[in-house]
Amino acid sequence: MSDSTQKSRPSLAARIFRILAGYEIAVICLSLLFLLTFFGTIEQKWFGLWATIHKYFDISSLIVLPTLGNGKAIFLPLPGAYWVIVVLGINMLCGAIIRARKGWKKFGVLLSHCSILFMLIAGAVSSVSKEEGHMRVLQGEKSDYAQKLFKHDIEIFQYDENGDREAPAIIRSKYIKPLGPNDKLEATFEKFDFTVEVDQYLPVSLLALDSPSNPAPNGVEVVDGFFITETEKDIKQEEANMPGCYLSVKDAEGNLIQRLVLWAGNPYPVSFTYQGQRYGVTYLMEIWPMPFVVDLHKTLGEYHPGTSIPSWFQSNITKVDGKVREEYEIVMNEPARHDGYTLYQAGYTAAAEGETPSSTFAIVNNPSDKWPEYALYASTIGLLIHFLMMLGRFAGSSRSKKNQTTEPSAS
To answer: Which of 27, 49, 131, 294 has the most CB atoms at less than 10 Å from its CB?
Structure first.
């Protein structure tokens, strides 16, 4: 056989493209997404919707181990859903769009494929650009701000003559989080004539009281009877992991004014005095102003018997945006939406005697919140166009065959 009749072997790039565009990858990805959705749906019953979504769908989740209600992991390592969707998106781009047949007869199918790919892109944009926070509201009260999760800022402020806080100077979380245990961060402020130095930062820590029954470990600094120590990360509730650090306040010559210990789980400010003025320092989640007000009328909930795990809770609220007032009933898996903001029922605190119950809302601001909806509309239109075109071709073919069978035969 001559060389000209031999089939040329496809190049390496062509073989890689054929694999990426193949049905095998699509089937594997869809099967993995089914398993991830199945285990995630079961798991959210025990750990809540917000925590489960972060575990299975966050960009940082490379490998996921499904977990039972008792916290025991099932040894079935699965890739994170985010990265499965990335591979599926590449597969769709190569196979359903680039390699697919083109032409006006395939317009509807191509539109549907592009819409599904756009929906996957919306999920990726959401994972890397959305903002998240928590808003806790007491029944009968209002709130117009949330606190961003995993972003803890240090705020330093002066008290006025009436004991009220003045506008704070802020050290943002993005400058604190990269610090290692031996790193230091020095900050100066135009409004203050002293400097501060952050050191011994621990991303997951506990604040403890130094006492005979609980002495500070060797080498751990104690400030005013307190110290911070590193602890294990809570994999079930990421928001329960609190950072801590030490802070030195120094004058212009570098002399120490005050040594402070800060822990993000402490809601109260620590204070110091300098040149007769009183100052306060807090280490709390970043304040996130909302473009609306949440007025909580009623919060209801139940726990599984003998546990602190909620089985059901809901909040009846009024959302006030200027002069516009809207009523919402938010249940565990039925959120409220407002101009890109989504309010989920994330927590419920029952009232002890003499106390007021409260609701905690997980708030998400997602720039691609409406993209899946637009993609769904476009996909529906594409499939409808394809169906009508197929129906038209089928009807035309049927009429042609019918005309051919009814024509008189030649004598």
So the answer is: 294
When pLDDT is averaged across residues 290-319 and rounded to a whole number, the result is: 83
Q: Is 385 helix (H, G, I), strand (E, B) or coil?
A: helix
* Cα gap 282→180, rounded to integer Å: 21
Residue bearing the bigger pLDDT, 191 or 352: 191
Whether residues 149 and 239 fall in one domain: yes
Taking the alpha carbons at both ends of the chain, their separation in whole angstroms is 53
Whole-angstrom CA distances from 273 to 46, 61, 245, 317 are: 47, 45, 20, 42
Q: What does the alpha-carbon distance between residue 92 and residue 379 come to, in Å, rounded to a whole number?
A: 14
For the stretch 127-186, pLDDT in tens is: 778 888 889 899 999 999 898 878 899 999 999 988 899 999 999 999 999 998 889 999
Of 9, 176, 4, 29, whose CA–CA distance to 94 is shortest? 29
What tokens appear for 370 in the block? 């409406």
- Give the C-alpha separation, 378 to 285, whole Å: 40
Helices 81-91 and 49-57 meet at what angle, rounded to 10? Answer: 50
Share of the chain above pLDDT 70, in %: 92
Distance between CA atoms of residues 212 and 195, nearest Å: 35
- Pick left, alpha or beta for residue 219 (phi over 0 → left; psi -120 to 50 → alpha; otherwise beta): left
* Domain membership flag for residue 357: yes
Instruction: Return the structure tokens found at 284.
Output: 């709390």
Q: How far apart are CA 35 and CA 39, in angstroms?
A: 6
Q: Do residues 17 and 117 both lie within one domain?
A: yes
Q: How many domains does the chain have?
A: 3
How big, in percent rounded to 5, are the helix, strand and coil portions of the chain?
30, 35, 30
Residue 235 DSSP label: S
CB-side exposure of 131: number of CA atoms within 13 Å?
14
Joined tokens for residue 185: 């961060």
The verdict on 226 and 317 lying in the same domain is no
Contact 299, 139 (CB under 8 A): yes
